[in-house]
From TrEMBL:
This is Sigma-70 family RNA polymerase sigma factor. Residues 29-96 form the RNA polymerase sigma-70 region domain. Belongs to the sigma-70 factor family. ECF subfamily. Residues 127-178 form the RNA polymerase sigma factor 70 region 4 type domain. Keywords: Sigma factor, Transcription, Transcription regulation. Gene3D superfamilies: 1.10.1740.10, Winged helix-like DNA-binding domain superfamily/Winged helix DNA-binding domain (1.10.10.10). The lineage of its organism: Bacteria, Pseudomonadati, Pseudomonadota, Alphaproteobacteria, Hyphomicrobiales. One of its GO terms (biological process) is DNA-templated transcription initiation.
Length: 183
């Protein structure tokens, strides 16, 4: 198995996992675990829970690798979606315990500003930056809050002060426009 940095390597590694190749899973872990923990930590806001999310996610990656279809999206996107969904499920299940520091540290405005800063840090010559820039501000914020910040649709609706149904449809239409632009 090739272990370089091309996107096809993750696709190859997932196919190998589906065939029972443990070294392929290790390769995915070595390449992606650090970033995955960071993403999970942004959502659950605790390092120990983020590590638990990533561990659970790798079990799911191992057992569900046969379900990955390259024609439906990138391997990296599939893996990251598993981590994001596991982190959100952890929050929804109520398994997260808040500490005093967590409660004091939860400043929604700062979190939203952090999410928007991620967009501004994108390479300005990248296609993704151009495509996100083509969206109106509210749709762009909604997509970034969902996929960078890990906010639920309800949290996004509250932050943007728009109805939940509107939030869902804007995110869906924004993602459709992004796919079209990126194609």
């Amino acid at each position: 198995m090739v272990t370089g940095s091309a996107p096809d390597d993750l696709t190859t590694a997932l196919a190998a996992c589906a065939q029972g190749d443990r070294t392929a899973l290790r390769s995915i872990f070595d390449r992606e675990a650090g970033r995955l923990v960071t993403i999970a930590e942004r959502i659950v806001r605790r390092r120990d829970l983020a590590e638990e999310v990533v561990q659970d996610s790798f079990i799911r990656i191992w057992t569900q690798a046969h379900q990955y279809r390259p024609d439906r999206g990138s391997a990296r996107g599939w893996i990251y979606a598993i981590v994001r969904n596991r982190a959100l499920n952890l929050l929804r299940d109520g398994r997260r315990e808040y500490t005093v520091e967590d409660v004091e540290g939860l400043r929604e405005r700062d979190q939203v500003d952090h999410v928007m800063a991620a967009w501004h840090r994108l390479d300005r010559t990248s296609r993704l930056h151009d495509c996100l820039g083509a969206l109106d501000d509210t749709k762009r914020r909604g997509i970034l809050m969902a996929y960078i910040g890990g906010y639920s649709h309800g949290e996004i609706a509250g932050q943007l002060r728009i109805p939940l149904g509107t939030t869902k449809s804007w995110i869906r239409r924004g993602l459709s426009a992004l796919r079209e632009c990126m194609a």
